[in-house]
Sequence to fold (235 residues):
Amino acid sequence: MRSFRGNIIIDNEERMRVLVVEDDKIIGDGVVAGLQMEGYAVDWVEDIESAETALETNDYNLIVLDIGLPDGSGLDLLKKTRGQKKDIPVLILTAYDDVSFKVKGLDGGADDYLIKPFKLEELTARMRALRRRSEGRADPTLEVGNIELDPAAKKVTKDGKNINLGPKEFAILQILMEKKGKVLSKAQLEDGLYGWDAEVESNTVEVHIHGLRKKLGKEIIETVKYVGYRLNEDN
Ligand code: CA
Fold:
């Protein structure tokens, strides 16, 4: 849908521009839709040749790069890009769960990699991390109202005071803070908990929202009837 050879979408907004190089239509579609929802401007190409053209004509903030491409290996494109001293962060998508392969990718100048299949949330989280690194922002602390959350230190404070949260409470609060002002459905919050449990119990989100309200104040998280939850920005 965002094939480079098709329409070139002119986008004058100051948004992060991502080049997705992926020949699998289903994965590409999912990645592009997910990144657009996150607010990225996305160009999608399906082979190395188109990727090279895209890189010559556009400035990208990030590249999401598949390895197995119809006209060669993504690693070759990576090498070439690095050879031209382009220091765009590159996140590799690979189907191979192989240590030697990962080493090759990282040695070749990749900044991170994800093994297929992956969760879109994981991709966007890694991209945020790459983005912070490339922008040289050492402090990724999230701040909403009087609440501060430090994802790296796993620390939350309210009015400067430490608040002890369980890991799932922390994960839910982090998602709500990252998406402040937006209503998140129960399913979206459950997705964020993926990895903690093989199975998320049907009432897990409610239980932890309850816990968060008890620790941070009832008004912090609004329930939006039939839709989901939203972090109250002027808590
Ligand atoms: Ca492929």
